[in-house]
Automatic annotation (TrEMBL):
Belongs to the helicase family. UvrD subfamily. The lineage of its organism: Bacteria, Bacillati, Actinomycetota, Actinomycetes, Micromonosporales. It catalyses: ATP + H2O = ADP + phosphate + H(+); Couples ATP hydrolysis with the unwinding of duplex DNA by translocating in the 3'-5' direction. ATP binds at A33, G34, A35, G36, T37, G38, K39, T40. This is DNA 3'-5' helicase. InterPro entries: DExx_box_DNA_helicase_dom_sf (IPR013986), DNA_helicase_UvrD-like_C (IPR014017), DNA_helicase_UvrD/REP (IPR000212), HRDC-like_sf (IPR010997), HRDC_dom (IPR002121), HRDC_dom_sf (IPR044876), P-loop_NTPase (IPR027417), UvrD-like_ATP-bd (IPR014016). Its EC number is 5.6.2.4. Residues 12-293 form the UvrD-like helicase ATP-binding domain. It comes from the Bacteria. Residues 638-718 form the HRDC domain. One of its GO terms (molecular function) is helicase activity.
Length: 726
């Protein structure tokens, strides 16, 4: 009876789809779980229910996750339910444990070889052996190629063909990478060390080639759960197949729309093909989103709804379960510094309003984008932490560049324009102003140094305020020494240790996390999607990155991009993944529904003709009609004149009564608020308010200007307006 009661308790509070996961029969189960749908609760409840009902023993379960954090969470949940003994580990941790245990048997009594923490040192030596001088960034890119090959079960002699077929963007010619790969493998063997892929291969080899090992492993583990199954690579799938040994008691959980690591060898093909490989599989879709508001969920659905390609076949339409929240905000800024300043200012408002800083995240496509937000948050006094990467001024290439810039003050003439001087100085660390090199690490290094050049351009273009009598603005004659002092100041400010702060993270490192408030920044063509996404498959992965970013937000979501990278720079287009943007350059507020037909076409034409209106407080481009009337974002502080608003309201009521029309026909509420906030004193200022055209200016202009000037409603009266209209 107690066991039955405990099993029923496990089912309590689950939605119908989650219950279907828990109660599915033994055998292959595929759980297609959208973001925020409670997948961890569902699969841990499945394990617990099967154990508590006597179907399986907890010690015979192996649950595989992709992060140690996820494994710890699963173990914790199972312990709370009262189901001990379940092994929840990452692929690497599970393989390491098995290889260490069986090493004496597999290696004739010898212990397992030392495990490399990083490939970079050995790869650097291997590159030197084949005539390449690889710096740290190039070595990291070569190591990445070797990891991709080994995870994809590609041998050194097969690399050239496999890389070409996979359209890999290699840091060197594929044949040269293959030479480094070969030299790397030889160096490892001669040094008696193995890497993480070797460890997975050793686990596979131990099971496939040693029946006694296979019997012991399969006797221990009889039931399997694999989380984030869309991120499995061929080597990991080979290990899973070895563990299973032809059995099919496996539950896999994944979301094809969150496949964002294909560059590492991960593939959603195993998730997509699971029902075909296991004809008797139970397939359950979890689509009730408990994380995000319906407004955030709606935008996520709109973005992923445009997806194409193989992964789109398993696209899930989420249904938000939380109470309604604010609409996602879409902002356009003149340049990236303005965007960063506005984001920081809003973070300050959120923190002052009670939102913990740790519940706010700023997410971007590349780590090199973090510097502007580090600086902007520092200037407004909001603490931050950088997730999954070093702070900008702590990066090795930036520290080296700062040394080179200081040294250049002795060799570059002082009259050299600052941007030119910085570019020349950075040649000492191998940077060139040409396009970024191939390879992720080398490209990221190039972009970080390019960010220093951009800082120099902005610093040189910023007017300086000097105390000449009263403070006066003069043109800055910035020297390289001045710029070095500015960099040192920024670095010192940003090295203040913080524990609880706004999270700055790339979209890749944000996977699996969530926050109350999320800022998605830099959403322009060339950044997201990156200009290096050339094939349809690569472009679709960029779309999925945005989808992952959107689904990190629980309550409040901001999306923004800058029309130019730096002040006065070349114009950029918004990301093609934002379905609410008018492609001609205008747009709608994020989350607004679009309608078809002639009416939509007419509105599109009107938007193309509409002049650009910016928020008079934060400078963002205003897209929604009500915001354009107000002349500010709805969340920016209002400076409304309450007495003027009351006079305008009373006057409007009298005019509407005299004309026998609804009050909104005279002026809408939004127009009254705009008038009371902006307080126009001249006809030019009055007609600048969106919604007041020549007709209404002729009808009501004189009366409104009089009210703004301080006249009472009795002094104006509806009669005066009627006289104007006649």
């Amino acid at each position: 009876m107690a066991v039955h009661s405990a099993a029923e308790t496990v089912l309590a509070g689950l939605d119908p789809e989650q219950r279907s996961v828990v109660t599915a029969p033994a055998g292959p189960v595929c759980v297609l779980a959208g973001a925020g749908t409670g997948k961890t609760r569902a699969v841990t409840s499945r394990i617990a229910h099967r154990v508590l009902t006597g179907g399986i023993s907890g010690r015979h379960v192996l649950a595989v996750t992709f992060t140690a954090r996820a494994a710890a969470e699963m173990r914790h949940r199972l312990a709370l339910i009262g189901v001990p003994g379940v092994q929840a580990r990452t692929f690497h941790a599970a393989a390491l444990r098995q290889v260490r245990y069986f090493a004496p048997r597999l290696l004739s009594g010898r212990a397992m070889p030392e495990l490399l923490d990083s490939k970079v040192r050995v790869v650097t030596l291997a590159a030197a052996k084949v005539g390449l001088r690889a710096d740290r960034a190039a070595a990291r890119d070569l190591a990445g190629e070797i990891e991709w090959a080994k995870s994809s079960l590609v041998e050194p002699g097969e690399y050239v063909v496999a890389a070409t077929r996979a359209l890999r963007e290699t840091p060197y010619e594929p044949a040269k990478v293959a030479e480094v790969f070969t030299a790397y493998e030889r160096l490892k063997r001669s040094s008696g060390v193995i890497d993480f892929e070797d460890m997975l291969r050793a686990a596979v080899w131990g099971i496939e080639e040693h029946p006694d090992v296979a019997e012991q492993v399969r006797g221990q583990y009889r039931h399997f759960v694999v989380d984030e199954y869309q991120d499995v690579n061929p080597l990991q799938q080979r290990l899973l197949d070895a563990w299973l040994g032809g059995r099919d008691d496996v539950t896999v959980v994944g979301d094809a729309s969150q496949t964002i690591y294909s560059f590492t060898g991960a593939t959603s093909a195993y998730l997509i093909d699971f029902p075909r490989r296991h004809r008797a599989a139970t397939v359950v879709r979890l689509v009730r989103d408990y994380r995000s508001t319906p407004q955030v969920v709606g935008l996520a659905n709109a973005v992923i709804g445009q997806a194409r390609g193989t992964e789109a076949r398993l696209r899930l339409e989420l249904h938000g379960q939380r109470p309604p929240g604010p609409e996602p905000e879409l902002r356009i800024f003149t340049d990236e510094p303005a965007e960063a300043s506005a984001v920081a200012a809003r973070c300050r408002v959120l923190v002052d309003g009670g939102t913990p800083a740790k519940e706010i995240a700023v997410l971007f496509r590349t780590n090199a984008q973090s510097e502007a937000y580090e600086k902007a948050l520092t200037e407004v006094g909001v603490p931050y932490v950088v997730q999954g990467a070093e702070r900008f001024f702590e990066r090795a290439e930036v520290r080296q560049a700062m040394v080179a810039l200081r040294a250049a003050t002795r060799s570059i003439p002082g009259e050299t324009p600052l941007p030119i001087a910085v570019r020349e100085a950075l040649t000492a660390v191998g940077w060139t102003p040409d396009t970024a090199p191939p390879g992720g690490a080398a490209r990221e290094r190039w972009e970080a140094l390019a960010a220093l050049v951009q800082l120099a351009e902005e610093y040189a273009a910023t007017p300086e305020v000097l105390p000449i009598g009263e403070a006066a603005t003069v043109e800055r004659q910035a020297s390289l020494a001045d710029f070095n002092d500015e960099l040192a100041r920024r670095a010192a400010q940003q090295h203040v240790p913080t524990v609880d702060g706004v999270t700055l993270a790339s979209l890749h490192s944000a996977k699996g996390l969530e926050w109350d408030a999320v800022f998605l920044v830099g959403l322009s063509e060339g950044t997201l999607p990156t200009s290096y996404a050339r094939t349809p498959e690569q472009v679709e992965e960029e779309r999925r990155l945005l989808y992952v970013g959107i689904t990190r937000a629980r309550q409040w979501l901001w999306l923004s991009y800058a029309s130019a990278r730096s002040p006065g720079g070349r114009a950029r287009r918004p990301s093609r993944f934002l379905p609410q943007l008018d492609r001609s350059g205008g747009g709608e507020r994020a989350g607004a529904a679009r309608s078809g037909g002639a009416g939509a076409a007419k509105r599109a034409v009107e938007r193309r003709r509409a002049p650009v209106v910016s928020c008079r407080i934060c400078g963002a481009t205003l897209l929604a009609g009500a915001d354009r009337k107000l002349g500010r974002c709805p969340t920016c502080p209002s400076d409304i004149d309450e007495q003027l608003y009351e006079r305008l309201s009373d006057w409007r009521a009298r005019v509407a009564g005299a004309q026998r029309v609804p009050a909104y026909v005279v002026f809408t509420d939004a127009t009254l608020v705009a008038l009371a906030e902006r307080r126009p004193g001249r006809v030019e200022e009055l007609i600048a308010i969106a919604g007041i055209g020549p007709r209404k200016l002729g009808l009501y202009g004189e009366a409104v200007l009089a009210l703004v000037a301080g006249a009472t409603v009795d002094e104006i009266g509806p009669e005066k307006t009627l006289e104007i209209s006649s």
